[in-house]
Amino acid sequence: MAVHDSAIGPRGRAAPTTLSAVTTPDADYATYIAGLPRVLSGAASLFRDAEGRLLLVEPNYREGWALPGGTVESETGEGPRQAARRETAEEIGLDVAPGRLLAVDWVRGPGRPPIVAYLYDGGVLTADQLAAIRIQEDELLSWRLVAPADLDGFLLGTLGGRVRAALEVLASGSGTVELEDGEPAGRVGEST
């Protein structure tokens, strides 16, 4: 039985494990890790103006609109909150610390691993902040403010459900919502 310093159970007793590959940083462990399923992660911020309209960006590499955000660069040690801030600065030129986590969405897709999408409250932008927006022309064509009632014409796929769920969290003051494919967890695939 292999025991590692970090495998300490209750009352300081060694927690038994039979997988030495899990506790030993060697070639077997690297093989074990390489064989695990992959998950991608992304993070975005939900910004509003004083009228409650949402800030959307228009990517040049796909159909539909999006929120400022992107891929979490986990290989560099970046976390979702850091990614949301970095991506906002890169895409629209605003360095705004994300607020509370509004939604986490497990998003399945063909031809790729699932994505865990983190959506943070970006807050209400001032007129000066809106005037300071400068888009990243390598990835974006434009930005605009859109009323919540008009989102369906802009947000494709699961993003619309994620944004609507986040708006509900903001309106109700409730906690973070867990989603699967843009729907509250537990509803996906359920028959009615």
Report the β-strand fraction as a percent range. 25-35%
- What does the main sheet amount to? 6 strands, mixed
Helix/strand class: alpha/beta
Q: Which of globular, elongated, flat, extended, rod-shaped describes the shape?
A: globular
User: Order of helices and strands, N to C?
Assistant: HHEEEHEEHEHEE
Poorly predicted regions are 1-21
Overall radius of gyration: 20 Å
Total helices: the number is: 5
Distance from first to last alpha carbon: 49 Å
What portion of residues is helical?
A: 10-25%
Spatial sequence of strands, sheet with the most strands:
3-1-5-4-7-8
Average pLDDT rating:
87
Oligomer: single chain
Count every beta strand, where a strand is a DSSP E run of 2 or more residues: 8
Short description:
By secondary structure, the protein is of the alpha/beta class.
Description:
- The protein is of the alpha/beta class.
- The chain is 23% helix and 25% strand.
- The protein has helices at 20-23, 27-34, 80-92, 127-131, 159-172; strands at 40-48, 54-59, 69-71, 101-107, 115-124, 140-146, 177-180, 183-184.
- The strands form two sheets. The protein has a six-stranded mixed β-sheet with strand order 3-1-5-4-7-8, sandwiched between helices. A two-stranded antiparallel sheet has the order 2-6.
- Strand 7 (177-180) and strand 8 form a beta hairpin.
- The longest helix has 14 residues, at 159-172.
- It is globular.
